[in-house]
Amino acid sequence: MAIKNPEELNFYLDKTLSEETMQVLRSARKKNIPFFVTPYYASLLDVTGSGYDDKAIRSYILYSKELVETFGEIKAWEKEDEVEAGKANAAGWILPEGQNIHRRYPEVAILIPDSAGRSCGGLCASCQRMYDFQSQRLNFNLKELYPKESWPMKLKKLMVYFEEDTQLRDILTTGGDALMSRNATLRNLFDAIYKMALQKKKANENRPDGEKFAEIQRIRLGTRLPVYLPMRVDDELISILREFREKASKIGITQLIVQTHYQTPLEMTKESREAIKRIVSAGWIVTNQLVYNVAASRRGHTVALRKTLISNGVVPYYTFSVKGFHENYAVYVPIARSMQERTEEKFYGLLNGEEQKEFVEILRNHIPYIKEVNLFLQNKKRPFIATDRSVLNLPGIGKSMTFRLIGITNEGKRILCFDHDTTRRHSPVIKESGKIYITENKSILAYLKQLEDLGEDIKTYQSIWEYTEGMTEPKFKLYEYPEFPFHATEIVNHVKN
Fold first, then answer.
1. What is the C-alpha separation between 33 and 74, in angstroms, rounded?
2. How crowded is residue 157: how many other Cβ atoms within 10 Å of its Cβ?
3. Which one of 111, 157, 165, 225 is least enclosed by Cβ atoms within 10 Å?
4. Which CA distances in Å does 200 have to 95, 160, 167, 489?
């Protein structure tokens, strides 16, 4: 049930794609760039050209010539994703053999199962893991991705890594896409996580205070299927999510999150809204990561998205700046625009400390919580709630928006000096790493011309030139870890000496 080549897509869109676009897509196919779009998602496009603005959707399924030119030579932007057995990654972590665990920070690690979860409901044109699709560690050969006989044994070994780590308390299962895995695969994964978390908790009973390991508190599933294919959220999946929450909460796993990825309010259809309601009814909180590409960066777009998400039970988490390599030239937004949006638009939804606490209590104590969230919005007279942080994933040191302008190239591209996020813990390697210097792949003038081509009045963006430095925002209270009822060890293991 997927469109897998340009001709199919053009057929479903009443042959409305331009010849120029088709040539780019055909070139992409020749270079073996995966092409995968669900008919449901394609149906969200306006084929009349006069109905509504669907540019934010099109920018996700139509590849740019820069991406096609670069594919095959894409480098890993996040250097820590380059893993060699027995060697520390760029963030200093020593990981199990294979490509199943990715890690930047002490508390959290990404888990990528050997399953259909190594694929997605579609390949996003600005995918953060395009490097992995290029290497075919992630792909769309679904039958070949189904778990092999060796996977249960491998999963046990991976769980040992989490159990024996002194600091890990947060597992983000993603890919690809966590919900591309079959329900049986997800059930087995949850069973393995539960057993590991329980064993880690019991082992702490024999450790003195101050030497206890961090226990598992948060489980997340990274998925775009509520957007790409909301029908995937079926009765069996909801039953699995509910059953896991009920038993996991008894051993201290109290933060259960489905982390999805809406790009535009147009994606919140009747079907998608129903999928979110079902997930929330199972006792999980749904959060969102927006990729801040050109189409999504237009004035008011992110405000409208936050408003739509919050009112339907989805809590914004991150607003990601697109990585600045050449393959993302067409969709990259200069960091100054992120700072402008944060200062001039996002501030309308800010909450003070007490209001944040009240909002978090609603999310955690009501199943489902959607009605109460909307009452909160009315009572506080807020059009939306700005629960997200604007960040850029930096090579080696994780997410940050702490930067300053230090220079400009002859082409007008800004040279930025980034520092790490001081609001969170990092691996010990951060003490050795210096600042990160990035030359943006696009000048502000070129970006403004793109906006003008999209029909924007660029006079409303003129203050963008003033944003030359920034500081990473503090976390919203929802995303803070609970305090342990004991003193955990400060020793960090699984890290290079």
1. 12
2. 12
3. 157
4. 19, 9, 11, 14
What gap in Å lies between CA 112 and CA 346, rounded to an integer? 33
Distances (CA, A) of 165 to 94, 96, 106: 11, 12, 9
Helices 444-453 and 335-344 sit at what angle, rounded to 10 degrees?
70
Q: Is 197 exposed, middle or buried (0-12, 13-18, 19+ CB in 10 A)?
A: buried
Dihedral over Cα of 372, 375, 380, 386: its sign = positive
pLDDT in tens, the chain (497 residues): 789 999 999 999 999 999 999 999 999 999 989 888 999 999 999 999 889 999 999 998 999 999 999 998 887 766 666 777 778 888 889 998 878 999 999 999 999 999 999 999 988 888 877 878 888 888 888 888 888 879 999 999 999 999 999 999 999 999 889 999 999 999 999 999 999 999 999 999 999 999 999 999 999 999 999 999 999 999 999 999 999 999 999 999 999 999 999 999 999 999 999 999 999 999 999 999 999 999 999 999 999 999 999 999 999 999 999 887 888 999 999 999 999 999 999 999 999 999 999 999 999 999 999 999 999 999 999 999 999 999 998 876 689 999 999 999 999 999 999 998 988 899 888 888 888 899 999 999 999 999 999 999 999 999 999 999 999 999 999 999 999 999 999 999 999 87
DSSP type of residue 433? -
Token digits for 281? 């009814």
Distance CA 83, CA 159 (A): 18
What value does the CA radius of gyration of the chain take, rounded to a whole number of Å?
A: 22
The whole-angstrom separation of Cα 143 and Cα 147 is 9
Length of the chain: 497
Write the DSSP assignment of 266-308 as a string of letters: GG--HHHHHHHHHHHHTT-EEEEEEEE-TGGGSTTHHHHHHHH
Q: Which two tokens stand for residue 247?
A: 């038993």
Sign of CA dihedral 323, 79, 170, 421: negative
Q: Could you tell me which residues come within 8 angstroms of residue 82 by beta carbon, excluding any fewer than 6 positions away?
A: 76, 89, 90
260 DSSP β-pair partners: 288
Pairwise CA distance, residues 434 & 259, whole Å: 31
